Amino acid sequence: MSDFTELIMSRRSVRKHKEAQIQEESLQAILKTGIYAPNGGNTQMWHFTVLQNQNTLKELNELIKKAFAKNADSDNRFIKGAARVAQSEMYCFCYGAPTLVLVSSDVANPNAMADCACAVENILLAAHAEGIGSVYINAPTWFDDDPEVRALLTKIGVPQNYHVCASAAIGYSDAPPAKGIRNEDVVNYVR
Ligand SMILES: Cc1cc2nc3c(=O)[nH]c(=O)nc-3n(C[C@H](O)[C@H](O)[C@H](O)COP(=O)(O)O)c2cc1C
Question: pLDDT tens digit string along 164-175?
Answer without folding.
Answer: 999 999 999 999
